[in-house]
Amino acid sequence: MKFDYTKYIRTYLLSLKPYRSARDEYKGGKSPMVFLDANENPFETPVNRYPDPMQRVLKKEIASWKGLDVNQIYLSNGSDEFISQVIMGCCEPGIDNIMIVPPTFGMYEVSAKMFGVGIQKVPLTSNFQLDVPAILKAADTTTKIIFIPTPNNPTANRFDLHSIEQLIQGFPSLVLVDEAYVEFSTNPSVISWLSKYPNLMVCQTFSKAQGMAGARLGMAFAHPDFISFFNRIKAPYNLNSMTINAALKRLKEQDKVNEQVRLLLAERERLEKAFASIPIILKCFPSDANFLLVRVDDSTRRYQELLEKGIVVRNPSNNVNCENTLRISVGLPEENDRLIEALSSLS
Ligand SMILES: Cc1ncc(COP(=O)(O)O)c(C=O)c1O
Hints:
The chain is about 35% helix and about 15% strand. By secondary structure, it is α/β, with parallel strands linked by helices. It folds into 2 domains: about 25-250, Type I PLP-dependent aspartate aminotransferase-like (Major domain) (Aspartate Aminotransferase, domain 2); about 255-345, Aspartate Aminotransferase, domain 1. The strands form 2 sheets. Strands 1-7-6-5-4-2-3 form a 7-stranded mixed β-sheet, sandwiched between helices. A hairpin with a 6-residue loop joins strand 8 and strand 9. Helix 9 (about 255-275) runs parallel beside helix 11 (about 335-345). The longest helix has 23 residues, at about 255-275. The protein binds pyridoxal-5'-phosphate.
């Protein structure tokens, strides 16, 4: 596909000569090799050597899992790191903007602010769907990336696939579809659209359904030219060996992950049913993720009361159209029992 990625990135970075990490030079060879290139401690522990900067073994496994080529994959220290990278790599500080669709995941705005990049906001409709005409109208030459998390955080719902496709087709710049909760969704991933739309990027994470939030591993999928660009501007060893090894192990346990997802979805349904008869809960919004957004009578008070009962939830009420809401993750069955009991006891 003929595609000029350079118009989407900061021209200043085109001439950047990337840091060559010691292990980049190593292309494999006749064993045994002697590594005297990186000033490591040669006495062996599981982590005395630097990790592979390009994570080749893990990317190969992820490529076959996702049905993509290795050169369409970028791995990051959680999706959070990729979100920062894409803003830093594509937006000129003080000139360019990102676009977000509030209520939305908070890190997009925080990252943009950290890099001195402006933020254009086009709120979701009242039923938390994309307002495609308003988005296309608001986008201008300074708009470099729009962030579309689906299922969305904090609202928990999925966006209509047709609207997402319309948006990608009409948007003048990059569309980053953040699929952090895709394993819980009835919508399929949009990674199959990557070959049609070079302005599309998709990110997923090992932090949610994959159960590895503590290891920090994000996956981004995009046109190979973007991936090669991101590889040039990343920290040399952005993923550590322990994370790489844990992910390789987790990839072999997908039956277990699928089973956990099934259980969490069943628990989500149980919570939804229980919430329907809890007086302080006025509404439970439809969820396609592993959490629920509920409207309560008084979110500040109920948040505090739950805290006093030893239950920590999230109060996203300061987001547009989220007045008096709480965001509640689906926990283990016994944790959900405690939650139901605590909420039922509030009057
Ligand atoms: C929509 C969305 N994207 C990304 C992330 C961050 O993922 P990671 O843990 O991979 O940085 C989150 C975390 O809550 C999220 O809700």
